[in-house]
Amino acid sequence: MAQHPHEALDPQALDRLFREARTHNELGGEVSDDTIRALYELLKWGPTSANMSPARFVFVKSPEAKALLEPALDEGNRAKTMAAPVTVIIGHDEDFHEKLPYLFPHVDARSWFEGPREGRSAAAFRNGTLQGAYLILAARALGLDTGPMSGFNNAMVDETFFKDTTVKSNFLVNLGHGNPAALFPRSPRLPFEEAARIA
């Protein structure tokens, strides 16, 4: 019998993606280029408004690229980021609309976002942030641990990694295999009654 296409994931998969997943401060091991490509091939399917897909990713892996990133990091994030196998710079292209004729060909979606760049920046930031969250879930699904963070100089990162482009950095995600011994005790989350309601 064919599996129902909307059957819930098993509890073990849900634990891996959500309930037992943690933000790691100490990441090691190896992350291959093939794994990085597989990660993108998963996350790209996450939904964005009009399929605009504004996120742009730089997978900082080589010693040379890490040396360029290091000066932009806040002191508290420096050591753990330099030790991580890969750090992903998640940015968003504020001129994402130029690719809409390819990404959303059903209508003239490009015309919705023409004009001053300021009129596109909120959509680029919102949907690029969504894609950054998809990256975290895709990484967990592939057996990686993650350490998402802000705490860096965005202007310096933009000058170093996105110079002469329309891409702006948003946040960073360290990738690798986490050390459970270095985790802090898990912080609580709000119960449904405090964070949500059914209207």
TrEMBL record:
CDD domains assigned to the protein according to its UniProt record, in alphabetical order: RutE-like
Pfam (any one): Nitroreductase
Residue ranges occupied by any Nitroreductase domain in the UniProt entry: 31-162
Enzyme Commission numbers on file: 1.-.-.-
Required cofactor(s): FMN
Family: Belongs to the nitroreductase family. HadB/RutE subfamily.
Name by which UniProt lists this protein: Putative NADH dehydrogenase/NAD(P)H nitroreductase SAMN02745674_01622
Taxonomy of the source species: Bacteria, Pseudomonadati, Pseudomonadota, Gammaproteobacteria, Lysobacterales
